[in-house]
Amino acid sequence: NAGVTQTPKFRVLKTGQSMTLLCAQDMNHEYMYWYRQDPGMGLRLIHYSVGEGTTAKGEVPDGYNVSRLKKQNFLLGLESAAPSQTSVYFCASRPPRDRASDTQYFGPGTRLTVL
Amino acid sequence: KQEVTQIPAALSVPEGENLVLNCSFTDSAIYNLQWFRQDPGKGLTSLLLIQSSQREQTSGRLNASLDKSSGRSTLYIAASQPGDSATYLCAVRPDSNYQLIWGAGTKLIIKP
Question: Would the pLDDT of B64 be above 80?
């Protein structure tokens, strides 16, 4: 049981390049999230998914796209990277709505630098 | 708009001390509040979750309290140890949706 894993752990891009971050979870969770974390700020939600085949925008969705083709995977894409997207990206998952299981489980993060 | 603030941004204390971390939020209409721990280069780990109807939750040396009316939560750490060194974040879930609103965290250093 690996929990939530993220690939890659580190990446350096040049402005305008594209890339995809992969998040995988083996807990059969319905909900998955992509956050970014910047120095001195709380985590900000980029996009999320409430189930296979569904996605929705979070607080800061511009410049990112996501896909949830399989329940266990949630992909975050940057079509044309910008220096403002330099950040640490976290993926999280959680079970369906359940008062006792509202906790989100986090991956280790991907540190992305855009030059 | 809900805003979550954690003060101080950093805290350094000698080993063995009891300490309190603070979290404040501007809108009392919350479903629950969570405290997380973040170690460098690692993801976040949930420590305690307090439902809106609860006043506190305890886990080992950790105790979290919630005062919805005043928009405050505290995380009390008893008998601190160097292994407690980490960044502690609080997050609130509003009544209106499933999205968490996060504080920026308090970086805690416990000196041996």
Answer: yes
> Residue B4 pLDDT more than 60?
yes
CB contact under 8 A, A48 and B89: no
pLDDT band at A90 (very low <50, low <70, confident <90, very high): very high
B78 interfacial to chain A (CB closer than 8 Å): no
| A109–B41 C-beta distance less than 8 A | yes
CB B76 within 8 A of CB B64: yes
Closest CB from A48, A58, A90 relative to B43: A90
Closest by CA to A10, choosing from A80, A98, A114, is A114
CB spacing of B42 vs A45 below 8 angstroms: no
**What does the pLDDT look like over B85-95, one tens digit per residue?**
999 999 999 88
**What average pLDDT does the segment A50-61 reach?**
94
